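Lab channel / #folding
Pinned by the channel admin:
"Please post every new chain as: sequence first, then the structure tokens as a reply. Keep commentary short and put observations after the output so the thread stays searchable."

First post following the new format, from NK:
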Amino acid sequence: MRQLLLRPGAEELTYEIRGIVKKARQVEALGYEMTWENIGDPIQKSNHVPDWMKEIIAELLKQDKTYGYADSKGVLETRKFLAELTNKGGGAQITAEDILFFNGLGDAIAKLYQFLIPTARIIGPSPAYSTHSSAEAAHANTAPITYKLDPDNQWLPDMEDLYLKVKYNPAIVGILIINPDNPTGMVYPREVLEGFVKIAEEFNLLLIADEIYQNITYNGITAVGLSEVIGNRPAISLKGISKEFPWPGARCGWMEFYNREVSTEFSKLCQTLENAKMIEVCSTILPQLAIPRIMSHPEYRSYRTHANAQIGKRSEWMAEILGDIPGIKFNPTQGAFYNTIVFDESLLRPNQKLPITDSKLQALLDTWLTDDTMPLDKRFVYYLLASERICVVPISSFCSDLRGFRVTLLEENEAVFKDTFRRLGKAIEEYLKS
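Reply from TO:
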């Protein structure tokens, strides 16, 4: 080409959660069935969408208004409904005008970082959810800045690490919180959230909370919303229906702006995001129309309670199967439906392997292992694909120096779930001993 096409930083946009699928599809092409543990898609794991929920959507499809434009910010009725839900928490109070809809949180996250100047940095957790870390790195034309989540302390954030990085890096203008966390399944206690607010107050920072899993907690744990502890700090909450309903294909998420008038710069950011949405006209209307009808349905609360209890039960099964395996750090999950298992790195070596009896699979694997600089957790993930046909995601792909992998807790069939993780546990032990 006569000119360069890509802006600096664009190549930071990677997404191993789906990238690993290319390798898994190659295994499937050889006639093998794959167990998918790489992505949080409840529908893929045979989650049943309740009939009453389908009836609401079907009824909306009969109405002509479903096929038109919405307000640029989103359906007013739905924004009023969601504002009332947030206000019931008793913290920061918002109106429908403080809510802005997007075509999924991926869209919202991309827009948020797009309009920040490259020198304005948002520090986020590590392990990091790839959509956030890649977008932040791309906007800044350099690697993302992160604070540590500690696998030796139930994946809670290392607040000293965060404080020092904020103190000595004046480019940091905001802190990203993912609560409940993806990829670890940790839920922040109230006092930890208050610690984030305290740091934000001291250094005059924006807080951003990805709370899409806020209503997916279990085993006695509940999530505290950012709005409940934020006080008068400027903040953005990111929410959506993809996993909670579940309706990931709806691509429906929204931002809630808290205390937008306390900062001129923050107010300008909110207005810019609204202006950008006006240029697009609006986000998809059908899921927006469905939200108040579904969430106010008399069966919704019991549906979510039951679904959370089932995930909690699977969390306990996973702990029973993997919790005592030597050579890994295992933390039971509290929210969302992921778990991150970390290896004792002193036990990882570049010559470890798993048995593979099919020469075609071995030949395929050999083509994946040509990079001598490959992180050792990715090497394990590739062997697991070829040996056990289980697809997981390496934690080195989540902007982390740790070595391990992420799995999901979505499989509805108890026998399949337990068989998958027993095979996974056996593979861990065999790989580390090889």
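NK: The CA atoms of residues 163 and 199 lie 7 Å apart.
TO: also worth noting, The chain has 13 helices and 14 strands.
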